[in-house]
Amino acid sequence: MLQRVIRSTIIDAPIERVWAVLRDFNSHDRWHPAIEASHIEGGERSDQVGCVRNFSLKDGNHIREQLLSLSEREHKSTYCIVEATVPLQRYVATVTLKPVTDGQRTFWHWESTFATPPGRERELHDMVAQGVYEAGFEALRRHLRQGEDLRPAGSASMPTALPVPMRRVVLHRYGEASELVAEDGEAPAPREAEVRIRQRAIGVNFIDVYLRRGWMPQMLPLSPMRPAVLGMEAAGAVLDTGAQVDGLLPGDRVAYLGPVPGAYCSVRNVPADWVLRLPAAVDDEVAAALLLKGMTADYLLRDLGRVGPGTRLLVHAAAGGVGLLLCAWARKLGATVLGTVSSEDKARLAREHGCEHVIVSRDYRFADAVARACGGADVVVDGLGAQAREENLSALARCGHWISLGQASGPLPPIEPDALLAKSLSFSRPVVFDYAATPARRAERAQRVWNALAEGTLKVPPIERFSLDAAARAHERLESRGRSGALVLVP
Known about the structure:
The chain is an alpha/beta fold. The protein has helices spanning about 15-20, 120-145, 205-215, 285-305, 320-330, 345-350, 365-375, 390-395, 415-420, 440-455, 470-480, and strands at about 5-10, 35-40, 50-55, 60-70, 75-85, 90-100, 105-115, 165-170, 180-185, 195-205, 235-240, 255, 265-270, 275, 310-315, 335-340, 355-360, 375-380, 395-405, 425-430, 465, 485-490. The strands form 4 sheets. Strands 1-7-6-5-4-3-2 form a 7-stranded antiparallel sheet, with helices on one face. Strands 10, 11, 12, 13, 14, 21 and 22 form a 7-stranded mixed sheet that branches. α4 (about 285-305) packs across α10 (about 440-455). The protein starts with a strand and ends with a strand. The relative contact order is 0.10.
């Protein structure tokens, strides 16, 4: 017969603070007195459904448990014992949190069912009820009061005084992807107007490659004593905040982008006005894959390209992270969408995302195909750079606009005014951070991205995942012409 253990308590902390600890399937060795040491097998994330935590108890026993479900919306998780030296058979447990009416306390319900060997029912029932659940309740109270990972209860504006261990990827000198090196470090307490975030997914973008190569040294200066950290965007959960930060609580799911690199790390402090709350329907990896790219697509189409019904839009790298979003969104706006790709597989993907006329070319020749398809492009979004220069000029229609977004084939040589004069062309070299320079503009653009995703206008592109330590491999993949979609790093 199955035993059933049920225990509940009230924790004097908001639900976001309690959930920030309990959602981490590998946090218990930092707060539960029975746990000696714990790790997640296979390098998986500690909030990934299906991950297995392998831990030892201080009494010498050993247990492996698997996370079966985790609901951010319901603040609920379920797990089971896979293997144990403790004779708890068919053990399944569920943790559920509910906010107390005043909003500053949390109701914590913990229950489990399991079988035991004959004659040991009471012993093992009491072990679970008292040694695991009741001891855990009191231990978490102490943990939250001490502020090991979070600010102390009741100190809404005061940061914790303790640094937090973290992993980061650094660059000591400009060069190839192999220059990226992972190392351990510490994230200091947040200063005034800062938020400390435990990052769960980090976006990888071509600007990271340009910075790594040293093409934008003013944005990423290097010094022998202080290596640089790449990365412009990430998603995760708030750990704590500095003074003068309102509206963000520990445990809140957030994403950010900002003009200062530094996102290739597991924990990061950022200005609070960079930070955006995430809708429940958008998970961390999707946010990290889409935020910067989606906001880029928004300002390119809305502000620079002024794309609408009948606009002839040419998108280079149409199967890339930004390219897929541009194709889908522009098609919804009524544009005629053309795109260049380097393979038939990418061509199929681009068509699936709204590109009507796909041009497959590996030698940067596309102008004749554009002329045949639509007579010329009103707007070109170019991430190719040097190798596409002359073809872009040929492919543009009269009064067309060339938006230079990147330089995957090499830095773009200067454009002589007379090269534009022949067709009354215009040229721009925009940066997303200037088009999302205030919290209000960032929030507005981000909301349009999430709305377009919810409505089905945008599809989540294919996402390739790399561990944070494998950032060099992610860069090599990004620079190859074999990949499509978006890349993220997972700490």
